User: Fold these one by one.
Assistant:
Number 1:
Amino acid sequence: MAYNGEEALRLAFEEKPDLILLDIMLPLLDGFNVCKRIREKMDVPIIMLTAKEAEVDKVLGLELGADDYVTKPFSAREIIARIKATLRRTKMQDRESEILTCGELVLDRGRMELFKGSAQIELTYREFTLVAFLLQNAGYVFSREKLLEEVWGYDYIGDLRTVDVTVRRLREKIEDDPGNPIYICTRRGAGYYLRRPS
Amino acid sequence: MAYNGEEALRLAFEEKPDLILLDIMLPLLDGFNVCKRIREKMDVPIIMLTAKEAEVDKVLGLELGADDYVTKPFSAREIIARIKATLRRTKMQDRESEILTCGELVLDRGRMELFKGSAQIELTYREFTLVAFLLQNAGYVFSREKLLEEVWGYDYIGDLRTVDVTVRRLREKIEDDPGNPIYICTRRGAGYYLRRPS
DNA sequence: AATTAATGTAACATTCCTGTAACATTTTGC
DNA sequence: GCAAAATGTTACAGGAATGTTACATTAATT
């Protein structure tokens, strides 16, 4: 929450929010200028709030790069709906760029593909989900319980050792020497983690 | 599970749950007030349940500090998704505070790593758990009994001297001169503590 | 319906962590 | 200064944790 245009700019760059609701009528620096200056540096969704219908034309005409606009007075329901819709739209675009990397490994969530260097590695669903989760949280150690919850599903019921076997199969495909893994490593007594390149 | 607002308050403070699902329509004390009073004392994620769309505005307008809201009727899938998303968000914030430092020592709980300056120190599970506990309570002296309870587990049964040996192994790895420790120190007749830099 | 692939379970193998015990050293109390 | 208590130190065996493989079962495909 910012109470004037300059604070809005500062907060936007500092906090890197997922989405910005931007009023036009602001002290110090109006919404038009704030929007323009944010757009110069960031690719964050912006929804503009206008008090007067007359301003709508201006929002559209100036090609500010706002993703949507809402005219006052608006209901909470309406603004929430706009926010959701905007996030859904922008997430879609993100999906294509949902690529995780760690050293030689490159993972494309959308296409469900994993590459090691230029070579594609064929993975099954479980294997892919597991490596994707570890990659997304590279460096962090996860217990078998946590992995079952996150990868298999919170309501999955089964043996903890299932994780071990899936890890083994992953190593078979990913590691040069599955006996001495350099990607999917074990922290004895704790669980597994994906080692980041040093 | 609480069946009225006052019970909800009592339970929240007693049980310290990870997350609260809070209906608005409650006997004795409604959800708005429960939420407000919990927020005054605790920083627990709260998801509000509303029967009427009209209440949504109120939830948002009152700035109760609820983390999310769901309108009835909702599917199990939806509420689970909201819970997960909320927990993920709040956990993320925890991540950064998972790092403990004391002088040259830097410990990362999530990664289960300990650094002394820029050099990483390889620790076993017990060693890590022990130093993490001492670091989190730097300066405070703990008896062998207390350490067994906190680090080994309240239900652990074994020799008190086990602590000594683990401390010895830790010193071997952490101290420049394990014979004259400057980090993990002994308070004769009492126990061990981690000395804070002077 | 037959075949193939995916995945969980179980059983066996291996590693290396960790507690115990035994002895050494330091400190305390008298 | 001596005995006793507390702590330091070391070695080693047992076992818990993990690795590995095989097989059964389920799901997907032909």
Note: The beta strands of chain B are 20-23, 46-50, 68-71, 99-102, 105-108, 113-116, 119-121, 184-187, 191-194.
Number 2:
Amino acid sequence: MKYSHRLSDAVHILTYIGASEIVEDDLSSRAIAGSINSNPSLVRRLMSSLKNAGLITSEPGRAAVSLSKPTNEITLLDVYKAIEEPDLFHVDEETNQQCPIGANIQSALHKAYNEVQQQAESEMSKITLADIVKDVVDGNKKTLS
Amino acid sequence: MKYSHRLSDAVHILTYIGASEIVEDDLSSRAIAGSINSNPSLVRRLMSSLKNAGLITSEPGRAAVSLSKPTNEITLLDVYKAIEEPDLFHVDEETNQQCPIGANIQSALHKAYNEVQQQAESEMSKITLADIVKDVVDGNKKTLS
DNA sequence: TTAACCTGTTATCTTATATGTAACATGTTA
DNA sequence: TAACATGTTACATATAAGATAACAGGTTAA
């Protein structure tokens, strides 16, 4: 998945909810889809994952989604784990076990990838939805002034 | 691309070259493909990218590829940049510019993603081909003993 | 010099995935 | 009861990775 922007759209949804004071107060999937320039079904599917991860609260029939936690307690890592595959890189699991290289490269790569993954996740855990919302709100103020 | 193992296969190729003393000394694309359990054409295409990045040296007609640098001077980051798209995450570039959120989310996400990218790349630059080769060779010794 | 091998490149096919879109069961509200 | 919402599923389309084949041209050894 190289051309995916699921994570971006999921953050967009959370930002929309968290910064709803600067938009018309319509939190329907249709209104959020309008902001993303996508469609309500995509939004509802992403929201389903966010809901399963405990990041948002919603009810059938009511356009009344809300964040389950304050924006400074929702990290980029939380969204990543709710939405994306767990691993940034993938080991080729089909290497030739009869070859000394093929038989040992998988564990060597897993070890290397784990180190990169940990650093990336550590950084993601430092970035909160509050940071994103602030950047968006500040950017909007700048436009208005 | 989510299910890609191009990076793993590229590291596999470099490891095969760098640890060729523990395999039969055949460095043809056919032999390397045999270790990956793939096909020679894929190997040659990846090698083409590795060659463009200055990591390996090869000549048409001769099965005599070699590393352009010592294994401890080739990092995982070098391979990543030679093979993969530059960005781990992708910003949705189609957001609604008429919406305060849609108009400002892109730059906020770019900023956040850049921080994660930098940490990941920093970690990748610390992992060298020498580390991978060592793990593979050690793993092989363990099997033989 | 010729047969057998190789590299480097391109093209095609298949498969996996993301997204767009529609549909529908069901809940909510005025 | 009409209008609108969510939550879920199904399907079509677009994109990308990988498998495979083909071929022009270089290399090597008998």
Note: The beta strands of chain A are 56-59, 62-67.
